[in-house]
Recover the amino acids of this structure.
């Protein structure tokens, strides 16, 4: 993430240097059973699925090699899942000890993405004491959140997540909310956004849910969701799942939230989707991988040490090596990974190359590029129509805010011109 032009503190969006190797200490194992989860199915790839957990040997190799591979003065360790807290507090205590051992004077930061349901007072004290930035999965008010985010018994989870949010706030833990935009939440943009404001949330990221039913490759692997598209596979695209967000609905959701935000909350609430867009208009570069011209710099470390091209490409064909045997820099600079990253740009259809919002969209995440352009070209992003509607809508606002920044005027001054039409 980039530092926000609207005033987001660096601790809420630490700058990445070199490449990024995110770790999954408990692999795809999770205590929840969210309908739309694309990672839980990866348990199929591990016969020892009941004991998924990163060993001390893998943890030490990861820590040492990752720190050594980073050229800058700071290193960010991101812990994700599945549900990473299933690894236990003692695992993370060892991780911190190893970071001190191999730190070499570099500034070490840790982030944790969690569903929050296993957090207690001890966890919150630990996260606070060690300055973890926590990404908390919360989709909105109960009716929205509990539509898909349930536990393994099918019971709702929203109240437990809100308890975790409260505890972390009491302990002074920095929290960003990671909210999916799915078929249900897309119908309630202002309810969702205002709920977060009422909960005192200041940092929000809206993540579109787009999944497809199993295609032939998924059936071969024995998993229920389609494998990301590849120009090498010519089969017809599988149907989008019922819980996925429709392209226009995603754009409408962002527009409705943006109108509320631009009139009331600039400089007070930080919606990363808007921050990243503003960065593109300001010409300061992408704040997230899917808005970059090319990808390939955000790799995944599984609990057993295997390294994969991307979180959305954790399939056998995209395994690059193992941290116990291979060097991270060699994997990220390999011919396979370089080609994988470059294809995000080289596979763009002509309609994207000629598009007036390509400078911000960059074709979106390759995982979602399974649609066809009006001319019948492959690799169009499923969310293209929504992206276009949103970016066209915010264009005059973004240009105005960039001008405010250029003139040294606080960006929040834009609210003076737009509050009447967007007031609550």
């Amino acid at each position: 993430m980039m530092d926000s032009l609207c005033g987001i503190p660096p601790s809420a969006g630490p700058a990445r240097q070199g490449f990024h190797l995110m770790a999954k200490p408990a692999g795809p194992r999770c205590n929840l059973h969210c309908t739309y989860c694309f990672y839980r199915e990866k348990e199929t790839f591990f016969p020892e699925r009941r004991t998924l957990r990163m060993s001390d040997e893998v943890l030490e190799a990861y820590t040492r090699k990752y720190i050594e591979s980073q050229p800058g003065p700071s290193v960010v360790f991101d812990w994700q899942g599945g549900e990473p807290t299933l690894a236990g507090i003692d695992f993370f205590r060892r991780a911190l000890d190893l970071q001190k051992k191999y730190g070499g004077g570099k500034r070490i930061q840790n982030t944790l993405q969690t569903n929050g349901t296993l957090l207690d007072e001890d966890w919150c004290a630990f996260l606070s004491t060690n300055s973890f930035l926590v990404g908390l999965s919360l989709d909105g008010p109960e009716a929205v959140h509990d539509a898909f985010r349930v536990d393994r018994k099918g019971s709702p989870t929203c109240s437990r997540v809100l308890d975790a949010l409260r505890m972390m706030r009491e302990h002074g833990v920095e929290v960003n909310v990671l909210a999916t935009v799915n078929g249900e939440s897309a119908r309630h943009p202002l309810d969702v956004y205002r709920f977060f404001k009422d909960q005192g949330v200041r940092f929000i990221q809206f993540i579109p849910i787009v999944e497809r039913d199993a295609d032939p490759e998924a059936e071969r692997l024995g998993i229920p969701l389609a494998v990301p598209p590849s120009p090498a596979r010519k089969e017809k695209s599988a149907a989008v799942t019922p819980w996925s967000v429709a392209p226009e609905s995603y754009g409408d959701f962002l527009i409705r939230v943006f109108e509320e935000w631009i009139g009331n909350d600039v400089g007070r609430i930080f919606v990363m989707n808007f921050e990243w867009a503003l960065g593109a208009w300001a010409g300061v570069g992408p704040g997230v991988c899917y808005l970059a011209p090319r990808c390939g710099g955000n790799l995944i470390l599984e609990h057993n040490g295997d390294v994969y091209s991307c979180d959305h490409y954790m399939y056998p064909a995209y395994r690059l090596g193992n941290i116990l045997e291979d060097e991270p820099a060699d994997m990220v600079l390999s011919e396979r990974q370089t080609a994988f990253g470059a294809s995000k740009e080289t596979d763009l259809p002509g309609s994207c190359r000629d598009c007036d919002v390509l400078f911000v969209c960059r074709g979106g995440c390759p995982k979602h590029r399974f649609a066809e352009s009006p001319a019948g070209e492959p690799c169009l992003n499923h969310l293209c129509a929504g992206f276009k509607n949103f970016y066209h809508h915010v264009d005059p606002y973004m240009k105005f805010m960039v001008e405010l920044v250029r003139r040294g005027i606080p960006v929040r001054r834009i609210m003076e011109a737009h509050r009447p039409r967007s007031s609550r």
About this structure: Confidence is low (pLDDT under 50) at residues 1-17, 420-424. The first strand starts at residue 20 and ends at 23.
